[in-house]
Amino acid sequence: MTSRSTALETIRQNGTSAVEAMREKTEIVGVLKKQDWGRASDVSKFKPGTWMALASIVQATGCAMHQLDVLGGQAYLNIHFWTDKMNVDPTLADLSQKRLSWNILRDMEAEVDKNIQRGWNEEARDIYKQAQWHKAKLLDYGVPDKSDDIVWAYLTQITRQMPGGGTPVIEECKIVDLDTVASPKNPARRFPGETARSRSLRRCASRAFPAILTPTVIAAEQTLLAHRREVEEAEVLPSQTVVEGTVLVGTGEPQAVVEDDPDVKKKARGAYFATIKACGVDDEKRRQWQAKAGFPASTTEWTVAHFDDARSRLTKGLAERTLSLLGPDKVEELALDVIGKATPATADEWMAVKAAAVAQQEQKLDELKGNGESFEDEGSI
Asked: Residues 154, 197: contact at Cβ < 8 Å?
């Protein structure tokens, strides 16, 4: 086959794939339009391009219909998407969501006073501890002391049981203060509770399990957002209309993209480059790997989720290579000796185990040479 024939065949194959993808997307749109999205969805505002953008999310993420919601004419991956993703991970130990409110705290303190009058019993101690915890979180996240109809704050906590020991707790709080939400078209004004709860979970899940928020998911969400900006500009409000509770902010649920907290982003970037250094990767190879993995060309364009996802992939790759070279038993033996636990968790720990294995091999070769024994080169690790 000539080079020209090969090129034509490639074009035909690519064209066929594109046609099939478009056909599938059109079929997805048909299914989406038949769904009962509820009275609050305002799907009547959707234009044809919006439906196609939503179908792109379904194609890219493989999400089911129950994992999508539409509020006030804006679509987003809902709580079920994130909980379903997390529930298949064996390291998920606990997931909880609590509403934070100064009025709830005052009710708890009043209940404590009633119990104290009846005697300082176990029930009073438990409520007192809960009230102290609640007050600490209100202060930590700066929840305004306003009516519960005005301020909605949800705290999400995720606990993981790591294979090597330890149970890290990741938490995120989302605050919606209606006094700062100017436009009645903003879903945060119409559905403040759902907005605070879903965004809190999304951010916490993407921090606890960064592999969920892949570049594919991010790109799919941004596709929908970008389309809304073009054809439904009146429906998208500036990000500053919602007060952000803390740290990691996602890219599309269900309003315009909100910037990452600069301090959190700086920390995530530092952790990523520390992992790059631990893996012994130079700048040229780093850029090649980033391009191959589908990340933006410059890390200045990255979000916290990008840095966390890249670090997770690098660590996972290093772990897989080390395990394949040494075997699980050898890794556990060396890890206990070198880092004091059976399973390495970070790139530094995996590199320490690998370095110990290299040192052992070199010592073994030196001993063989010293004894005048003949041996075959065992290769490098």
From this structure: yes
Q: What is the pTM of this model?
A: 0.53
Q: Show the 3-state SS of 77-113.
A: ECHHHHHHHHHCCCCEEEEEEEEECHHHHHHHHHHHH
Q: What is the pLDDT of residue 9?
A: 53
Q: Which H, E and C letters describe 221-246, residue by residue?
A: HHHHHHHHHHHCHHHCCCHHHCCCCC
User: Domain boundaries in the chain?
Assistant: 260-381
Q: Mind listing the pLDDT tens digit for each residue in 281-290?
A: 888 888 888 8
Query: Rounded CA gap, 76 and 216, in Å?
Result: 15
For residue 155, list its beta bridge partners: 98, 173
Cross-strand bridge partners of residue 152: 176
Cα distance between residue 98 and residue 96, in whole Å: 7
**What are the residue ranges of helices labelled H in the chain?**
3-34, 48-61, 79-87, 102-117, 122-140, 187-190, 192-208, 215-231, 262-278, 283-293, 304-326, 328-338, 347-370
- Tens-place pLDDT, residues 16-28: 566 777 788 888 8
Non-local (6+) Cβ contacts of 165 within 8 A are 341, 342, 343
pLDDT in tens, 173-223: 999 888 876 666 566 667 788 888 888 998 888 888 888 877 777 776 776
Amino acid at 21: A
If DSSP codes are grouped into helix, strand and coil, which group holds residue 213? coil
User: Do 273 and 95 touch, CB atoms closer than 8 A?
Assistant: no
Please choose, from the candidates 261, 253, 257, 260, the residue with its C-alpha nearest in 3D space to the C-alpha of residue 195: 253
Contact 358, 379 (CB under 8 A): no
